[in-house]
Amino acid sequence: MPNILPPTLEISAAYKQSLYQAGSVVTRINQYPKGIPAKLHQSTLIMLSAYNPGGRLRLLGWNIKMMRKLEQELKQYEYFIGKGSLKEVSEPLFMVVLSLPKAVVLARKFRQNAIVMIRHQRLSKLTFLA
Fold this sequence. Notes:
The termini are close together. The model has no long low-confidence stretch (mean pLDDT 95). It contains three helices and seven strands; from the N terminus they run H-E-E-E-H-E-E-H-E-E. The protein has helices spanning 9-17, 60-74, 100-109; strands spanning 19-22, 25-27, 45-48, 79-86, 89-97, 114-118, 125-128. The protein has a seven-stranded antiparallel beta sheet with strand order 2-1-4-5-3-6-7, with helices on both faces. It is globular.
């Protein structure tokens, strides 16, 4: 995918060590999510962001603007505000009720490296888009 860098071992490890939270849901990659509301037990939940597209650092103002644009795209879906964090660093994200194919299209539109897929009683899965 143009403008999206394949993940380095360091980036891949950072995604896997990060804690992902949105609404009442908390998870890490390859762990069972906690706090999924009963009404969402049959849903596919996707965590995605619009920050730092293609794995390249951007200015805060630019990232905020892109998150607002992503939020506009999500208005037709049920979604929750959240964050991904590793140590003292965190990045805002959204958790949205959305199929994996639609999530991949949306994440690529915002040139994201990866998304996190969450399902009730299943391990949380990291999907790289490069």
